[in-house]
Amino acid sequence: MKATWDIFCSVVDNYGDIGVTWRLARQLAAEHGLAVRLWVDDLGAFVRLCPQAEVQAPRQTQQSVEICLWPADWQEVVEPADVVIEAFACELPAAYIAAMAGREQKVLWLNLEYLSAEDWVEGCHGLPSMQSNGLSKFFFFPGFTPGSGGLLRERGLLAQRRAFQADERARDEFLRDLGVEPLAGALLISLFAYENAALGSWLEVLAAGPQRIQLLVPEGRILSSLQGWLGSPALQVGDACQRGQLHIQVLPFISQDQYDRLLWSCDFNAVRGEDSFIRAQWAGRPLLWHIYEQADGAHLEKLNAFLALYKEGLSAEAQVALARLWDAWNSNGPMGECWTQLLKNWPEQIVHAEQWCLERASQADLAEALVQFYLNWL
């Protein structure tokens, strides 16, 4: 019989949590032949990522994964799975935990943590935490180093990406399907971020620069900042405008597979949170990360920990340029001079982005690491 896996996801205020767990659930089912249930407390958010899903259906199957509504007033009587993943510190229903403790066959309980490159991650990855009911909960940390749980990456993803990037016609057809007409000689940039006061200074230098820029902005929170700079009323999907060398177009909210291809199509990707951040790295192109802001500046420690890893192998000048740009973007600083400095090292940044991608891909991916952890635990 297939091993059964339950993944619990509580949607907070963005699509990162459900984005990661939906990708993981699909991969566990498709590549490892597991019976996977994904419990989601907000089907509306899930339907944005999986448009064919039914927002009113408490149970449904999508891409070989059983999608279950996780109600606030849990009344479910279900047999706990062999492996239970508590994603991003969400709290499992008390009745479900009691059923886990009473199950004759033991359950592997995993707390899937947020992604971090901080030094302490390797030391905490895989550690158990004894619970008062006799169960053990293990901490599982995704990460960028061999001592962590790895990153989400489907089999064949990089081969698909390379084939797509080598086929200019495929790229142009994909963009046209989104309503985008590729501009000859333009530097293509995708922008997916939270609200950001630093955006205006970046757009100013893009508009005044020597090269034509095509900025593609998927529907999202950054639109309010873009509207402020443009001095325009509410932007709508499909809206396009030009300021100097800068051509801006608002794209619809797209599926995860489409978003991957958008990242592959662009020369530079500004991304946010966790899911799009990882996918931009698999695109093998230079990127800019808008990390989710936390109290007391804890997010900046995570940002700097990642930069410390990512910068390895770059020249001193390229390291400084990259760090200054990321710091300005995440601290509402002036972006103009930082962007100009980065362009001076542009060829090096391109080569480095691909090399970083290949080095991370040499490690076990997150789904594979989770399955192996379960097999070792058995």
TrEMBL record:
**InterPro entries tied to this protein:** EarP
Taxonomy, superkingdom: Bacteria
Q: What reaction gets catalysed by this protein?
A: dTDP-beta-L-rhamnose + L-arginyl-[protein] = N(omega)-(alpha-L-rhamnosyl)-L-arginyl-[protein] + dTDP + H(+)
Q: Does the keyword Glycosyltransferase apply?
A: yes
Keyword Zinc-finger attached: no
Question: Keywords on this record?
Answer: Elongation factor, Glycosyltransferase, Protein biosynthesis, Transferase
Q: Which GO terms describe its molecular function?
A: translation elongation factor activity
NCBIfam families the record matches: efp_Arg_rhamno (TIGR03837)
The entry's function note states: Protein-arginine rhamnosyltransferase that catalyzes the transfer of a single rhamnose to elongation factor P (EF-P) on 'Lys-32', a modification required for EF-P-dependent rescue of polyproline stalled ribosomes.
**Family note:** Belongs to the glycosyltransferase 104 family.
What's the protein called, per UniProt? Protein-arginine rhamnosyltransferase
What is the originating organism of this protein?
Answer: Pseudomonas spirodelae
